[in-house]
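Honest question from a wet-lab person: if I give you the sequences of every part of a complex, can you actually get the arrangement of the whole thing, not just the pieces? Trying it with mine:
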Amino acid sequence: MGISIKEIPDTSIFDLRLSRRGVRLNKMCAALCAAAERDAFKRDEEAFMARFSLTEEEKNLIRRRDFKGLIDAGTNIYALLKIGSATGNSLYRMGAQMRGESYEEFLKTRNISGAV
Amino acid sequence: MAKVVAGIGLSHVPSVGPAFDRGKQQDPAWKPLFDAYVPVRAWLQKLAADVAIVVYNDHVAQFTFDRYPTFALGIADRYPIADEGFGTRALPVVPGDAELSIHLCERLIAAEFDLTVCQEMGVEHGFLVPMNLCFPHTGADWPVRSVPLQVNVVQHPLPSARRCYRLGQALRQAVESYPADLKVVVMGTGGMSHQLQGRRFGYMNEKFDQWFLDQLEADPENLAQLSHHRIMEEAGAEAVELIMWLTMRGALSPKARRVHRHYYAPMTTGMGLITFEEQD
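Yes, you can. This is the full assembly:
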């Protein structure tokens, strides 16, 4: 066994095992760094996901916009931001969902919530 | 001979980019951050640097996990603006200094830092936000040439904080052996405390951040002993970017004096700023 990092509660540590698990999702997300690909995703999400050979389980996470589930399935947080962009979900909206809060509830926990 | 004249540690929060582009410098929620850079830019203007070496991380825009370098250095004359999933920002292409870059690669690899060498690389917010704040572009150009130095702070295992510090020390030697008469500023970017996933999304720790700033100034050699685990536990998983500040600090001499220091944490990231100047 290699040297893995001790777990931290409520925290995902993106290591090589997680990266392997998320290989299809992260490849798909990386493609979204081009305007034409974002348009293709928006036009036909199902076809786009099929092109990257996502499993049925992975497709369901995207269909449900289950951001915590996507992180657990190995999507890197910075890759996830590109799905957020393509689906109209800002980082803070995705974060609120991961915390189990509404967007408005989440904003109330911030020091200066106007800096968005 | 070239010399390192200053070092800057600063956060590269992505939302600063659009705030900058939309002219939100006077917006009450953003003003404290942007105001902190007014004296920094005046100071930099006086220093009249030729080159900025920017130690940063890409966020799955140019470097994807199919092939992922631990340390990657650009050796191009120009670095285009990358689309990181939100569209390409309307910024001029960043001028590089290929000759200096090649020299740095030769020296650093000889010093056993086995870099990935990039003939082509676009730059995104990790690189651009620090440039917007310190060396803002003027119309079609930027006031300095740049050398992008990309570090893996995303896919564990990461290089240790100490390795990053040692890289900074080697970087200083490499700069000082370059024959042209250049003034170089080294920027260490990212952090401070933040976590962007899991139930702990939005976690910040100002106490840790202030301690980090204290130690970065007073005892960087000791700070470089920090483990990734401790940074992530105390300051959030994405705070581990802070190891890149140690590369900047390693590139400074023991005589460097701290000039500016600022901290602002409005939303989900402790945005820190610290500058150091070498003494003649």
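Two things worth pointing out. The two ends of chain B are 14 Å apart (CA to CA). Chain B has a mean pLDDT of 97.
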